[in-house]
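Data card: per-record layout.
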Amino acid sequence: MYPVKFDNISKDYSGNRVLDNINFHIEENKITSIIGRSGSGKSTILKTINGLIKPSSGKVIVFDQEIDYGHIHELRLQIGYSVQGTGLFPHMNVNENIAILARLKKEWSKDKIENRTEHLMNLVSLPSEFRSKYPYQLSGGEQQRVGICRAMMLNPRIFLLDEAFGALDPTTKNEIHKELLKIQTTEPRTIVLVTHDLREAFKLADIIIIIDKGIIQQIGTEEEIMNQPSNDFVKYFIKSQFD
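The structure for this 243-residue chain is written out next.
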């Protein structure tokens, strides 16, 4: 089973084609990076996986079933979603931000929420005394860790990261990368990472999808992309990233 499959997916906005007949699948319990320049369609793919965007044509298949947009809430509870800037609620402290999805489900006991929160904070190296802090009291890296904890709270089968580390300084970004890889070792799951940084994709991902102008240019491992670029665009993209 592939957790995600795109079957001839296209998406148009006001006559502008953002995704053009996209076909691919995502490997289970691996990190897949979707990479491209600004406006390439990579974030649109991520939002389509999560049901935030409905394609103009084609089928999105998640967990072996075509997305049912009439019951999208049930699907989203199985998908963690973390974006650049974290989207933390400023009026909630760290503990409340992390636990909010579990509290909304209502079937989670206080002990279960407490244990899961503590486990996740340990995973991303957040001290327990941070529970009472508010987002404005945290650094960018600390906020990103809280955002990851919140997205992981319900133990989602798929974890989507949309330029989640783009605003971080290089040292903090490196620390967060280490935490993400630690999470993947401890709680392996299907992760889809959108980035414009090929170095980040090579560092984190098992599989890389390069997209440009809504068209997939190449799918492969780091070795395949570096040694066997599929076309002139991929060659140019690699060169532009490493010059």
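Known properties of this structure: The beta strands are 4-13, 16-26, 31-35, 57-62, 65-66, 79-83, 158-162, 190-195, 207-212, 215-220. The chain has a mean pLDDT of 91.

See the next section for split statistics.
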